[in-house]
Specification:
- This protein has 11 helices and 43 strands.
- An 8-stranded mixed sheet has the order 36-37-39-38-40-41-42-43, with helices on both faces. Strands 13, 14, 15, 18 and 19 form a 5-stranded antiparallel sheet that branches.
- A hairpin with a 6-residue loop joins strand 16 and strand 17 (about 230-235).
């Protein structure tokens, strides 16, 4: 009898261990494997071709110690080797390199690569096999901008702008002594597509640049704790409703050494964005936006006199106008340019002449243009990527999940798709427009790289099919679907990760990962629907993980995004709660153990969801959270919320501090001590509000980190987040 009982106990134990044994047969992930900055993340990087790019009529890429060059349809050749490069460096009196360096090309039409080694910017012509440029750099310099027209290099030193000639002669463009005056750097907090502060004319003889006067802007006192005695690290930070900086645009003439200032006039508190040069160096086009950001004027200025030459057209909105891209001139048509705009509800392309007259709308439909890729050599065809449905599809609208590349005829707007496979295509077109490098991915396709012909999409060469780096590991099932938004009509996309080894008769804790703000899209039609490493890790640990792109996120058209205007957090949260309803309908989701995590706007969403629906969410982790929008910077804050004096109801409704008494679950706030984007005042004000309300959040700071925790500390961050859910959910 005892032996029978013993055998039954052993059999029962084996049955209980079956799921664990199955998982043990496959490898388990650690955070060091999945999180950027981890010791093992390089092993899990998706295969690619190093530095694949166009060079004239060839595509080139690095293969070990060799750079390969291939003309589509022909045999590959060796462009250069590490040995040849080092021989050329030695001949030029420069230090050798240990491997093929990361490089760019002076232009896609030339055989000159550019790389930096030991404070030397080196230009190596691999066809001529010699160094053709050597610029000696300083560690004090930044914001480099090269003029391909004449070989001059613009840069900043401190807050001033300077130029380095090919002969290494330095010329000062500005000589400001007031620390509140900044020249040659990005302005307007990098909003409106601005990512630099200098703009060379096509010939390189003129340099347009931003000059920003911040003397009237409030200084925010960030604190550097690394010093023996902590020091202030002041940062100019205009908050919503406060005084903004004033920007002007100068044009420096290399021949005369003089600067002409564009006469942009009053009011000074406006945004000068999307700077573009005319092909003849004579004019500069600027999209000027008023402080309310509901009216944009496209203006042309003389680069010679600074005079305002023409107002080409005006765009207005009852919400906001947000120009993101400068005009692009059509090759061989110096009097025609293309402008991107969402006036019909979706971002599309419009052909104008330089008198401001609309010639034709080039693209249309319920989908958005994502990128302009270039033209063919004659300027007859334009190449773009967008969310337009594939021609083989029966649907009329884009989904935002898929991205295809198109050839668009400039004369009549006819479109031809040259990427055929369903999924997401990232494309680079050759200088003459005949071919394209197509990097393709889909939910079950890690990465494929091909060369395709733009006129018909015919594949010319298949370069790579990447292996699944997670093949030997215990992976969750990842599904994608749609639910209705809180308006009852709009479809919104989600992805769902089921716990590894799911038993649908059991109940599992669930973590919602949220961002939810503008200029974001979490759920895609790419590999694993855009799943992040931490989500996989949490599913491996036994969590359901859910991600939903609510209304207010990108690539679904103007009305989809602008639904958030003046009421940040309201409709986004309502949509996320529809996601919660869906989760509760799943038999394996424990409705009593639902948590939420997000960073930045996602931190705002996390705290908002926790405090608006305190009986739903048991645990939350909010990183770098916006708590009160009147503490946020002026450009972003006033675009989406208007001036605080004009929208006090909206600011109060979105102020998380006013809901501090609602906190019931466990909430962890995380903030970098040197955050210049969402300043620490947000988290501190929330902690004070909770103290006053006698509620009890937790708080953790990352010393010395700005808005995002990067590097090795990012592993610690995700371990901290994971432990908080493990301990409380």
């Amino acid at each position: 009898m005892g032996n029978i009982i013993k055998r039954l106990l052993v059999a029962g134990l084996c049955t209980l261990l079956l799921p664990t044994t199955f998982m043990a047969q496959q490898k388990q992930f650690t955070l060091e494997d999945l999180i950027p900055g981890g010791e093992n993340t390089a092993r899990f990087a998706v295969e690619s071709l190093r530095q694949l790019q166009w060079c004239g009529d060839s595509y080139i890429y690095v293969d070990g110690e060799t750079v390969v060059s291939v003309v589509p349809g022909k045999k590959e050749q060796i462009a250069f080797t590490l040995e040849k490069l080092n021989s050329a460096l030695k001949a030029a009196g420069l230090e050798e390199v240990n491997r093929i360096p990361s490089f760019s090309l002076i232009s896609a039409k030339e055989s000159v690569i550019v790389f930096t080694n030991r404070q030397h910017r080196i230009h190596y012509d691999f066809k001529a096999d010699k160094v053709v440029g050597d610029y000696t750099l300083s560690t004090k310099w930044a914001n480099y901008d090269y003029a391909s027209g004449n070989g001059y290099l613009a840069f900043t030193e401190g807050n001033n702008l300077k130029i380095l000639s090919p002969e290494n002669k330095v010329t000062a463009v500005t000589q400001e002594t007031n620390e509140g005056i900044v020249s040659g750097q990005s302005v307007h907090q990098n909003e409106f597509g601005i990512n630099k502060g200098t703009y060379w004319s096509p010939s390189g003889s003129l340099l347009a640049f931003y000059r920003m006067d911040e003397t009237m802007v409030s200084t925010y006192p960030l604190v550097d704790f690394d010093k023996r005695v902590s020091e202030l690290a002041p940062h100019k930070y205009p908050m919503a409703g406060m005084k903004s900086h004033e920007v002007t645009v100068g044009v420096y003439n290399l021949t005369t050494g003089q600067t002409v200032w564009l006469k942009t006039g009053e009011p000074k508190e406006k945004y000068l964005t999307n700077i573009a040069w005319s092909p003849d160096d004579k004019s500069i086009y600027i999209a000027e936006l008023n402080r309310d950001q509901n009216e944009m004027n496209l203006v042309r200025y003389s680069a010679v006199t600074g005079e305002r030459e023409a107002l080409l057209f005006t765009e207005k909105s009852d919400k906001y106008v947000e120009p993101q891209n400068p005009i692009v001139f059509v090759p061989n048509q110096p009097d025609q340019f293309i402008w991107q705009n969402d006036r019909d509800g979706y971002n599309h392309l419009y052909l104008y002449n330089t008198s401001g007259e609309l010639i034709r709308q080039l693209t249309s439909g319920k989908w958005v243009v994502l990128r302009m890729l270039g033209f063919d050599s004659k300027g007859n065809n334009l190449y773009i990527t967008g969310t337009a449905p594939h021609p083989a599809s029966s649907v009329a609208e884009g989904t935002s999940l898929e991205t295809y590349a198109w050839q668009v005829n400039v004369k009549n707007g006819n479109r031809t798709c040259f990427t055929s496979k369903k999924g997401v295509h990232s494309v680079v077109v050759s200088p003459d427009g005949q071919y394209a490098i197509d990097q393709y991915t889909a939910p079950d396709v890690v990465r494929e790289i091909s060369i395709v012909r733009t006129k018909d999409g015919k594949e010319q060469a298949h370069l790579l099919t990447a292996k699944n780096p997670y093949a030997d590991y215990a992976m969750p099932e990842i599904v994608q679907g749609t639910i209705k938004a809180s308006d009852g009509t709009t479809d919104i996309h989600y992805r769902l990760l089921k716990p590894v080894g799911l038993d649908e008769t059991k109940k599992y804790p669930t973590v919602i990962y949220v961002y939810g703000g503008p200029h974001s899209q979490q759920v895609t039609g790419g590999w694993q629907y855009g799943t992040r490493g931490w989500e996989i890790y949490m599913a491996q640990k036994g969590y359901v993980v859910y991600v939903l792109d609510n209304r207010g996120t990108s690539n679904r058209g103007r009305d989809f995004e602008q639904v958030i205007h003046r009421n940040l957090g309201k409709n986004e949260t309502a949509d996320q709660m529809e996601g919660v309803k869906f989760l509760k309908s799943l038999p394996y989701v424990d409705a009593n153990r639902i948590g939420v995590h997000g960073w930045s706007y996602g931190g705002f969403m996390t705290t908002t969801m926790m405090l608006t629906h305190p009986d739903v969410f048991k645990v939350g982790v909010a990183g770098g959270p916006v708590i009160d929008w009147k503490f946020y910077e002026i450009m972003y804050g006033e675009r989406y919320m208007d001036h605080p004096d004009d929208n006090p109801e909206g600011y109060n409704a979105s102020n998380v501090n006013l809901k501090a008494s609602n906190l019931k679950g466990k909430l962890l706030i995380i903030h970098g001590t040197m955050d210049p984007v969402v300043v620490m005042q947000h988290s501190m004000s929330f902690l004070k509000a909770c103290i006053d309300a006698r509620t009890y959040p937790d708080f953790f700071a990352y010393p010395g980190h700005p808005h995002n925790v990067m590097g090795r500390d990012r592993i610690h961050l995700h371990e901290k987040i994971t432990r908080y859910f493990d301990d409380n959910l």
